[in-house]
Amino acid sequence: MNVSFLIDGFNLYHSIEDLYIEHNIRAKWLDVKTLLRTYFTDPDFKNLSQERHSFNGIYYFTALRHHVAEEKPQSIARHERYINALESTGIEIIYGGFKPKTVKCLKCGEDFIKYEEKKTDVAIATKLLELAHKSQSEVYVIVSGDTDLIPAIETARIIDDSVKIVVVFPFGRTNDELKGYADLSYTIKPKRYSSCQFSGIIDIGGKKFAKPGNW
User: Fold this and answer.
1) What does 41-69 look like in DSSP terms, one character per residue?
2) Which of 2, 85, 156, 197 could serve as 137's disulfide partner, Cβ 3.0–4.6 Å?
3) Exposed e or buried b per residue across 3-24, where buried means at least 16 C-beta atoms within 10 angstroms of its C-beta
4) pTM of the predicted structure, to 2 decimals
5) For residue 138, what are the CA distances in angstroms to 27, 66, 132, 192, 200?
6) Residues of the chain whose pLDDT is less than 50?
7) What's the Cα-to-Cα distance from 192 to each of 27, 56, 139, 177, 207, rounded to whole Å?
């Protein structure tokens, strides 16, 4: 049985930051594919079908924070290094972007510019519908806690009423409303983050990548 994975990169990233704050666990060098593979052996996941499950596409949705390039140049470099590590495992990266928004300060009343990440939820929803229309997989796993994806899940079931939807909630992002639209759901536990980290040096086309020192 083919399984496609759609990963909300920032939802997952912010869960890793919360994991460090709450449990002092550093997990930014997360080997996403290894983590996802661990669910194949879970009895409930296996019960979705008597067939053997296999990867049929892993899509990781993210955006580069170019607006902080002057203030935090190493932030983008670290992010790009991590993206390279994910790509080395066969994960497809789908980019969104950040847009400026004028916001009024509640304390001083002055306007300031705030950058908001855009397109991710729409991109995930669009990809899910595309894959369902093509009957790409029998199971679609969404790694996110964003309820904005509910309409896309409903529409995917209309397109193909045989599909199975699994939601994997990043740490601290379990949502009962979204859970109600899934055939099966999980919440990533702290130990699973820490046990699924890239190890050693990653060699990509002759270029070597190691975990950033403060990760």
Assistant:
1) GSHHHHTT-SSPPEEEEEEEEE---GGGT
2) 2
3) bbbbbbbbbbbbbbeebeeeee
4) 0.87
5) 30, 37, 9, 25, 34
6) 115
7) 10, 22, 22, 24, 28
